[in-house]
Amino acid sequence: MMFMDVHTHYPARDPDVLAIENRHSGFEEPVDGLRVSTGLHPWYIRPETLDADFEKLRRYAVQPEVLAIGECGLDKLAATDWDTQCLAFEWQIALAEEMRKPLVIHCVKAFEECLAFLKDTSVPVVFHGVNNRLSLIRPVIGAGYFLSFGRTLLHPNPAILETFLAVPLEQLLLETDDSRADIREIYQTASELRNIPEKQIALQLESNFSKVFKQ
């Protein structure tokens, strides 16, 4: 059984884990033999370097090992000014469309705005690190986007549990993000919370992974 970790900041060391490593800098680092997502994270973009950083991203993202653009998006708690965030997000959506690669979305207190930018997007979209109440996530589910959950499933509060149980299996993905959590444990917990066999979760997530990342 394979375990799909769709968003991690650490190299996978388990042969049974298929992981997508995220990079928001170091666009000169080799990607040989890896699966990578890459984008301009709203925490780290700066207006004075945005043009140059985007061109570096474009050159890097053309490589076949780069499976997705992101994480990118909008964050109302970030120090980066709002106009710069919006411009970078708009450019990266266009880049994903141009390269026909999925988008991995970072969204903090900006669901309405993110969804407005994504309204006409034709590539697959993954909202990563979901830890929000259901009222915020319902429009994301309704848009048909994928939702990726991580370590918050290991000790979910009632709001996160309600959200997790409301996401259709056909739109579900799992991740470890920047934690040292074990993706196997997250799979096991997800199956327990859903009260379905872990094998069923694994097969569905493998199918979802294939739909999004064309692997």
Output the keywords.
215 residues, alpha/beta, 7 helices, 39% helix
Structure, described:
It is globular, with a radius of gyration of 16 Å. It has an eight-stranded parallel sheet with strand order 1-2-3-4-5-6-7-8. The protein has seven helices and eight strands; from the N terminus they run βββαβαβαβαβαβαα. It is an alpha/beta fold and 215 residues long. Helix 2 links the parallel strand 4 and strand 5. The model has no long low-confidence stretch (mean pLDDT 96). Helix 4 (134-142) runs parallel beside helix 5 (158-166) and helix 6 (183-194) crosses helix 7 (198-213). It is 39% helix and 20% strand. The protein has a single domain (3-213), classed as Metal-dependent hydrolases (TIM Barrel, Alpha-Beta Barrel).
Q: Indicate how many domains the architecture comprises.
A: 1
- The rough form would be described as globular
Can you tell me the CATH topology?
Answer: TIM Barrel
Beta fraction: 15-25%
What is the fourth-level CATH superfamily?
Answer: Metal-dependent hydrolases
Number of helices: 7
The end-to-end distance, rounded to whole angstroms, is 16 Å
Structural class: alpha/beta
| Rg result | 16 Å
Helix-strand pattern? EEEHEHEHEHEHEHH
Please state the average pLDDT score: 96
